[in-house]
Amino acid sequence: MGEPRRRPGSAAGGERRYRFADGPAGGERRAALALRVPEVLDSQYGLYVWPCAVVLAQYVWFHRTTLRGKRVLEIGAGVSLPGLVAAKCGAEVILSDSEELPQCLENCRKSCLLNDLPDVPVIGLTWGRVSPELLSLAPVDIILGSDVFFEPKDFEDILTTVYFLMEKNPHAQFWTTYQVRSADWSIEALLCKWKLKNTHVPLQSFNADKEHLASSSLPGRHTIEMMIISLARSDGT
Ligand SMILES: C[S@@+](CC[C@H](N)C(=O)[O-])C[C@H]1O[C@@H](n2cnc3c(N)ncnc32)[C@H](O)[C@@H]1O
């Protein structure tokens, strides 16, 4: 994955707007949600909205009626678009990013403030690390992670954190989107090792099979996939 490049219409240190909607345009019962997120173009991945974030946010938006009152944790949140949609739709959200990247955590906080969500907690959670923050985390129903599988060396750390949370919350699901960057990358063996299973979610099932989503030209022509990871049963299914 190369350095983020500036996209047309985005200024360094600027803001971007995303609009989620359903129903026919102009229809009386059309639901919509508009969000603003800070966008600092920098080499740190968490300061930039990735195509996967728009797809996961669309999944959250599409399933918003099931999210009311659910406890949601976003990991590797960066600009936090999926977590913000969940919070606006009535979920109790906690945002997290690496405890070693204070600028990313600051960006999560900025996203909350820009969207009148000052009470959403932002915590440092580094994948693979059993920290006091992870140990003291409140119960969770849904873990969100957009474009967290971008560096193969981190894959097992991500899944150990997810497994740790699912052991404590066996009903929890990990909703995650990833960008296909190499056909050689796979998490299948790691899922098996950590007694997790994944279910592929077709993009068309939540109206995300488009180059333009949420009033944005992301995800463009990138190949984005969505899956739901959960604990496998004792018989491995
Ligand atoms: C490719 S960016 C995706 C950001 C955001 N989720 C999105 O899709 O726009 C990867 C994110 O993972 C975070 N990250 C990287 N290494 C991490 C680690 N070891 N533990 C926790 N978060 C990490 C980065 O700070 C960044 O926010």
Task: Write a structural description.
Belongs to the methyltransferase superfamily. METTL23 family. One of its GO terms (molecular function) is methyltransferase activity. Residues 1-23 are annotated as: Disordered. This protein is an alpha/beta fold and 237 residues long. It is 24% helix and 26% strand. The protein has helices at residues 51-62, 81-88, 102-114, 132-135, 155-168, 188-193, and strands at 14-21, 32-39, 71-74, 92-97, 122-124, 142-146, 173-179, 196-201, 212-213, 216-219, 224-231. The strands form 3 sheets. Strands 5-4-3-6-7-11-8 form a 7-stranded mixed beta sheet. It has a two-stranded antiparallel ribbon with strand order 1-2. Helix 1 (51-62) runs parallel beside helix 2. The radius of gyration is 17 Å and the shape is globular. It starts with 13 loop residues before the first strand and ends in a 6-residue tail after the last strand. The structure holds S-adenosylmethionine. S-adenosylmethionine binds next to helix 1.
Short structural summary:
The chain contains 6 helices and 11 strands. Helix 1 packs parallel to helix 2 (81-88). The protein has helices at 51-62, 81-88, 102-114, 132-135, 155-168, 188-193; strands at 14-21, 32-39, 71-74, 92-97, 122-124, 142-146, 173-179, 196-201, 212-213, 216-219, 224-231.
Tell me the layout of helices and strands:
Blueprint: E1 14-21, E2 32-39, H1 51-62, E3 71-74, H2 81-88, E4 92-97, H3 102-114, E5 122-124, H4 132-135, E6 142-146, H5 155-168, E7 173-179, H6 188-193, E8 196-201, E9 212-213, E10 216-219, E11 224-231
Parallel strand pairs: 3-4, 3-6, 4-5, 6-7
Antiparallel strand pairs: 1-2, 7-11, 8-11, 9-10
The site of S-adenosylmethionine has 21 residues, from helix 1.
